[in-house]
Amino acid sequence: MAVAGSIGADQVAALQRLLRAMGLYRGACDGTAGPATDRAVRAALALLPAVPPSVQRWPAAARRRCLIRLLARPSEGPGDGPSHGPSHGLSDGPGDGLSDRTGASL
């Protein structure tokens, strides 16, 4: 049974592939979030200017959900409003465990 707010192996594997493409992860893209994935997530979050340093103190699963939400979020483009960039196979759907208030504070 899945825990509310948990992410599945498919999303972890997609996150691992993205972290590998960013040059932050060298492990297997197997959907298992181990220490190498967690180090890469920490490194990626540290690179994003919109993420406060306090996020680094969150539990590993919460940091993964935060990064997925940030990477899956539509980016604001110049001109007519939001432009939906590539999701990289990541979804920030309602089961991500982050409230709208938390997402807005990032």
3D architecture notes:
The chain has about 110 residues and is mostly helical. Helices cover about 40% and strands about 5% of the residues. The protein contains four helices and two strands. The protein has helices at about 10-20, 35-45, 60-70, 100-105; strands spanning about 75, 80-85. A two-stranded antiparallel ribbon has the order 1-2. Helix 2 packs across helix 3. The longest helix has 13 residues, at about 10-20. Mean pLDDT is about 75; it is low at about 75-85 and about 90-105.
- The value of Rg in angstroms is 13 Å
Strand tally is 2
Task: Please state the overall shape, judged from the principal axes of the Cα atoms.
Answer: globular
Structural class category: mainly alpha
One letter per element, helices H and strands E, the order comes to HHHEEH
Largest sheet: 2 strands, antiparallel
User: Would you tell me the overall average pLDDT?
Assistant: 76
The helical percent reads 40-55%
- Largest sheet: spatial strand order: 1-2
Unreliable residue stretches: 77-87, 92-106
Distance between the termini: 30 Å
Classify the beta-strand content into a percent band: 5-15%
- Summed up, the helix count is 4
Secondary structure blueprint with pairings:
Blueprint: H1 9-21, H2 35-47, H3 60-72, E1 75-77, E2 81-83, H4 100-105
Helix pairs in contact: 2-3
Descriptive terms for the model:
mainly alpha; two-stranded antiparallel sheet; 4 helices; 42% helix; disordered C terminus
Quick summary of this structure?
The chain has a two-stranded antiparallel ribbon. By secondary structure, the protein is mainly α.
